[in-house]
Specification:
The chain is mostly beta strands. 12% of the residues lie in helices and 38% in strands. Bound molecules: zinc ion.
């Protein structure tokens, strides 16, 4: 795989997320007006509009809510990775994010427990997840 991963565009609005990512920290916020969890971190609460937000770091553990296997991709970098799994991960702190699940595709299932790790060869670092409790925990079910 000679291509390099295309990187996200860091804007004023996404800088809190990607600055933390480059410290290998998954940032999220709590809204002190409505109690909501805000992800990605931003300037105001998307539920109530409040600016009264505090910034926190996720432990990076969660459960796969949904997933798909990518088998075709127009970008040369991602084409070189196919087939791979992309999932919606419910983090234990109460937010959901889309990310690659970097585990063998036939071992990943909805409901699996996953843990974050960071791809750090470029800036910003990229959050990926790996299955930590899957087939073994499910037994033969
Ligand atoms: Zn709010």
């Amino acid at each position: 795989m000679s291509e390099r991963r295309p990187l996200p565009r860091v804007t004023v609005e996404t800088d809190l997320l990607w600055s933390a990512a480059t410290r290998d920290e998954l940032a999220y916020q709590r809204c002190h007006a409505c109690g909501g969890i805000v992800f990605y971190p931003r300037g105001h609460c998307p539920r109530c509009g409040s600016l009264d937000l505090s910034l926190h770091t996720s432990a990076g553990r969660g459960t796969i809510y949904s997933m798909t296997t990518v088998r075709l991709h127009p970008d040369p970098y991602f084409a070189g990775k196919t087939p791979y799994v992309v999932g919606l991960v419910d983090l234990d702190e109460g937010f959901r994010m889309l990310a690659e699940i970097d585990s063998p595709i036939d071992t990943v299932r909805i409901g699996d427990r996953v843990e974050i790790f960071w791809e750090s060869d470029q800036i910003p670092h990229i959050p990926l997840f790996t299955v930590v409790a899957g087939i073994e925990a499910r037994g033969n079910a």
